[in-house]
Write a structure and sequence with these properties.
- By secondary structure, this protein is an alpha+beta fold.
- It folds into two domains: 21-122, Jelly Rolls, CATH 2.60.120; 125-231, Sandwich (Jelly Rolls), CATH 2.60.120.
- Helix content is 15%, strand content 37%.
- It is built from six helices and 13 strands.
- Strands 1, 8, 10, 11 and 13 form a five-stranded antiparallel β-sheet that branches. Strands 2-7-4-5 form a four-stranded antiparallel β-sheet. Strands 3-6 form a two-stranded antiparallel sheet.
- Bound molecules: 2-acetamido-2-deoxy-beta-D-glucopyranose.
Length: 232
């Protein structure tokens, strides 16, 4: 009981209040094929995935040339789809992935499925820190860090590529999402973390990597009864 009270003395503001989208919600639908790529993009701000469905919710999407039998189940949804895409895309300005990443099992055998991802673009600090450098996150007084997403690896040939050989920047599919930045930095007013194998492990040996991340600064909100608990 006491533990519960103490942990409620400082509450972070509900994240949703601070994520005022910079534009309206976007929806991307990718039909099921052997090897398809889905691409999410924000012209301003970073991606925040709101919903994702792998399965089928209606007979309309991805129906061209299909047999009615293949569209018959409109209550088909794979569990965990949203988590997979959030992990992959939250906090990025663009996010491209092979839709095979969500096809971990078949939620409705014989039904033709699609992947629908709904997302918004929310304002955030976005940064890429080259390997062996420190990422420094900070917020002004009274506010604390909330990390939307972080990746260690390489997703393009241009970031942190100065004086590198073609081989060192060749692997652009080396990208390991990491929760470590959030674990270390959330709730703090400033935070430093090294973009290094020693911190994150090495997702692609021989490749020059970088840490890409996005965060916001949230106001801290004190629970009204805080002063009472301070006296206990
Ligand atoms: C995405 O948004 C559309 C339009 O609001 C909605 O009809 C659809 O159900 C949403 N998809 C998911 C997976 O929630």
């Amino acid at each position: 009981m006491l533990g519960f009270k103490l942990s409620s003395t400082l509450l972070l503001a509900a994240t949703c209040l601070l994520m005022t989208p910079v534009d309206s919600s976007k929806s991307v639908i990718t039909c099921d094929n052997a090897r398809d790529v889905q691409r999410l993009r924000c012209d301003s701000g970073v991606i925040m995935v709101e919903a994702a469905l792998y399965g089928r919710q209606n007979t309309m999407f991805c129906s061209a040339g299909r047999d009615p039998d293949q569209l018959a189940d409109t209550e088909c949804a794979q569990d965990g789809t949203m988590d997979i895409i959030k992990k992959r895309c939250d906090g990025k300005m663009t996010c491209e992935f092979d839709t095979r990443i969500v096809r971990t099992s078949d939620p409705c055998v014989g039904i033709d499925k699609y992947l629908q991802t709904n997302y918004t673009c929310v304002p955030a600090f976005h940064m890429a820190t080259c390997e062996h450098s420190y990422a420094t996150l900070s917020c002004s007084e009274g506010r604390v860090i909330f990390v939307y997403g972080a990746d260690f690896g390489r997703r393009d040939r241009t970031t942190c590529s100065h004086m590198r050989t073609a081989a060192q920047i060749a692997d652009v599919e080396c990208s390991d999402p990491t929760a470590l930045v959030a674990e270390r930095c959330n709730g703090k007013s400033s935070c430093m973390i090294k973009a290094s194998d020693s911190v994150f492990g090495d997702p692609c040996p021989g490749i020059t990597k970088y840490l890409e991340l996005a965060y916001v600064c949230e106001y801290t909100v004190k629970a009204p009864e805080e002063s009472d608990h301070m006296m206990e």
